[in-house]
Hints:
The protein is mostly helical. The protein has one domain (4-29, 54-146). Helix content is 70%, strand content 0%. The chain is built from 5 helices and no strands. Helix 1 crosses helix 2, helix 3 packs across helix 5 and helix 4 (105-112) crosses helix 5 (116-146).
Amino acid sequence: MMNSKQIEDTLRDYSWMLNEIKRQRQLMDYEGGNLVAQSGIESTLPKAKGGTSDPIALEVIRRDKNSKWLDKLETKVLFIQKRIHLITDEREKAVLECMLDGLSMIAISQHMGLSRRHIYNIKESIVNRIAHFAHSAQDMTNEKRCV
């Protein structure tokens, strides 16, 4: 579960995280980059100690770390996507959509013809609504576990 600061950060970073998820998925689907295990006599020979001399092993490790990082990004993006429906006020919807599209607070302010302070207040309201629902949903889940 995310706190208000994490929700705010995720809303701000949503656009680039979505783009990075797309990019990483494309890389994973790239056929030419697949790594294959050794077979035959090479697979039975002793391996070098230290691990830094095997570029294939290092690439497998790098891709594994990227996969875990990608899972974290996907979790954050899904958290927001599953709660977009909570925002029902028209101005809040407009600000949220602009944020998800990657616009800065200044750009949103100029786009909507509202002061930056007003846009920040709207953003705070969005974050609070999402956070409140997330906490309520978590509380309900905990109650079900106790029963």
